[in-house]
């Protein structure tokens, strides 16, 4: 590989002149922005143990009233980017949000898309574009970009959920902003996951003058059905890895434009070695225990823990114990496919 010239080799008066005009030479930085052979990820794999984060979140519940926070969230900061980085990987923002009984988080809509996975507690709900979505443990709830959403809690115990947003992408685009509104008055009806899309593979017949809502027909994926689907697949797929994609039930496409979600089951004692992927990922443990070796580093996980994997990470998951482990994988493959980039490499 040719050794390229450095900035220091250039005369100071030339460097000063470039600075005054607002230009800079590419060649000293060429290999930084176009490293040979493969990317040089900034993200470092990290595990956020629920037992470490939960007490801090509960303390936020005492220190900061929800009115002063709007969203009472501790976000997961990638150690590869230094303290306080508002991203868990290149494109994924992940936060843990606390709502106490009786509290509400006001309605807003924003350009980034969000999804939530319920971690703890019963009785909370999110209202998305007028539909009241109950939040049970493990449920995946979408709040796509541009959709109004507010949160409420009519239960007795604190509720905590995990937020995933494509916020870093929108910040990069200089396109991130929100609009506020009063709390929504929910429609008096069950959400489409309980009605129109109650059975997998079936969608209501539409009329020409009332076409299907193709962008976001279903905002809630109840965990009970996801887990049942995984368990059944595990019994009948010849021992292959068990992973289901959360898709738009009208189109089969990813359920959000830039972020993808899958539910994984590891049978007791099972090891899984996914291909190297150009997408980064965050894994959230719904239940079960195990460990994942990510680029040589072992992350040992249990229920409600969350851990990250950079792009092209070498990953090996293994469950431990007598029961299966269930994880949700959050990734940015849909974005990468849309820009004609997504790559997988065999190991
Ligand atoms: O619940 O609407 O973690 O707007 C970050 C931004 C949650 C939310 C976050 C948000 C929300």
Can you walk through the features of this model?
The chain is of the alpha+beta class. It has a single domain, classed as Jelly Rolls (Sandwich), CATH 2.60.120.10. 17% of the residues lie in helices and 31% in strands. The chain contains seven helices and 23 strands. The protein has helices at 12-21, 30-33, 50-63, 66-69, 167-172, 223-236, 333-338; strands spanning 47-48, 73-75, 93-99, 104-110, 114-120, 124-128, 131-134, 140-143, 149-153, 159-165, 178-181, 220-221, 242-245, 260-266, 271-272, 276-277, 281-287, 289-294, 297-301, 306-309, 315-320, 325-331, 344-345. The protein has a six-stranded antiparallel β-sheet. The protein has a six-stranded antiparallel β-sheet with strand order 2-3-10-5-8-12. The chain has a five-stranded antiparallel β-sheet with strand order 7-6-9-4-11, with no helix packed on it. A hairpin with a 2-residue loop joins strand 6 (124-128) and strand 7 (131-134). It is globular. The structure holds 2,5-dihydroxybenzoic acid. The site of 2,5-dihydroxybenzoic acid has 9 residues, from strand 3 and strand 10.
């Amino acid at each position: 590989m040719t050794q390229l010239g450095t900035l220091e080799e250039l005369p100071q008066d030339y460097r000063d002149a470039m600075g005054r005009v607002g230009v800079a030479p590419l060649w000293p930085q060429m290999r930084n922005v176009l490293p040979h052979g493969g990317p040089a990820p900034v993200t470092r794999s990290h595990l956020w143990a629920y037992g470490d984060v939960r007490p801090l979140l509960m303390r936020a519940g005492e220190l900061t009233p929800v009115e002063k926070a709007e969203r009472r969230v501790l976000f997961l900061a990638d150690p590869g980017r230094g303290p306080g980085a508002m991203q868990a990987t290149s494109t994924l923002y992940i936060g843990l949000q606390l709502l106490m009984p009786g509290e509400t988080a006001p309605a807003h809509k924003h350009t980034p898309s969000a999804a939530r996975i319920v971690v703890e507690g019963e009785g909370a709900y999110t209202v998305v574009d007028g539909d009241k979505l109950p939040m049970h443990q493990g449920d995946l709830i979408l709040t796509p970009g541009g959709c109004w959403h507010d949160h409420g809690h009519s239960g007795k115990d604190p509720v905590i959920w995990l937020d995933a947003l494509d916020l870093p992408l929108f910040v990069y685009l200089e396109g991130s902003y929100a609009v506020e509104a009063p709390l929504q008055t929910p429609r008096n009806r069950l959400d489409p996951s309980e009605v129109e899309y109650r059975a997998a593979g079936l969608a209501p017949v539409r009329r020409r003058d009332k076409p299907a809502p193709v962008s976001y027909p279903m905002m809630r994926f109840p965990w009970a059905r996801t887990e049942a689907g995984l368990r059944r697949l595990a019994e009948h797929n010849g021992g292959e890895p068990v992973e289901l994609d959360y898709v738009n039930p009208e189109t089969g496409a990813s359920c959000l434009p830039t972020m993808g979600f899958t539910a994984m089951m590891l049978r007791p004692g099972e090891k899984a070695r996914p291909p190297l992927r150009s997408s980064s990922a965050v894994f959230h443990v719904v239940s079960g225990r195990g460990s994942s070796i990510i680029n040589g580093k072992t992350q040992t996980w249990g229920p409600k823990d969350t851990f990250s994997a950079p792009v092209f990470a070498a990953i090996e998951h293994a469950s431990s114990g007598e029961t299966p482990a269930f994880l949700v994988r959050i990734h940015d493959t849909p974005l990468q496919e849309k820009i004609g980039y997504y790559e997988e490499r065999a190991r």
